[in-house]
């Protein structure tokens, strides 16, 4: 009787150990599946972030190139406007010089006319 109880007890212990081992394997498998699912979910987000970062890097490079081209073009425009402004100033200076010469010529013409009339008047008197 005692040996039978011992065998039954050992058999029940063996069954419990097998059940416990099976449950442990199932828990490990479930934890592995959960971990893989979580990692896959995270990897999708990380992959999308990486793709977005690459797109942003490309856009930044493109924007930098366009900004440099715009700055160069703006510099050229500024130079052209300054040259045009300088040409207008020179035209204004030539116009002022021409007016000054014209005024001097009128003064000289008036003086010569006055002298000529002055020479004519004493001979007619």
UniProtKB/TrEMBL annotation:
Reaction equations catalysed: L-lysyl-[protein] + acetyl-CoA = N(6)-acetyl-L-lysyl-[protein] + CoA + H(+)
Any single Gene Ontology cellular-component annotation: BLOC-1 complex
Single biological process term from Gene Ontology: endosomal transport
A Pfam match: GCN5L1
Entry-linked PANTHER family: BIOGENESIS OF LYSOSOME-RELATED ORGANELLES COMPLEX 1 SUBUNIT 1, BLOC-1 COMPLEX SUBUNIT 1
Protein family membership: Belongs to the BLOC1S1 family.
Protein name in the entry: Biogenesis of lysosome-related organelles complex 1 subunit 1
């Amino acid at each position: 009787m005692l040996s039978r109880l011992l065998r039954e007890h050992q058999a029940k212990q063996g069954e419990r150990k097998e059940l416990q081992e099976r449950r442990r394997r199932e828990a490990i498998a479930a934890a592995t599946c959960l971990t893989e699912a979580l990692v896959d979910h995270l990897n999708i987000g990380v992959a999308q972030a990486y793709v977005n970062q690459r797109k942003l890097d490309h856009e930044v490079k493109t924007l930098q190139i366009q900004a440099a081209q715009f700055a160069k073009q703006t510099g050229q425009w500024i130079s052209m406007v300054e040259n045009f402004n300088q040409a207008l100033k020179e035209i204004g200076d030539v116009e002022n010089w021409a007016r000054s010469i014209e005024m001097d010529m009128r003064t000289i013409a008036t003086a010569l006319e006055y002298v000529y009339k002055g020479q004519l008047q004493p001979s007619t008197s």
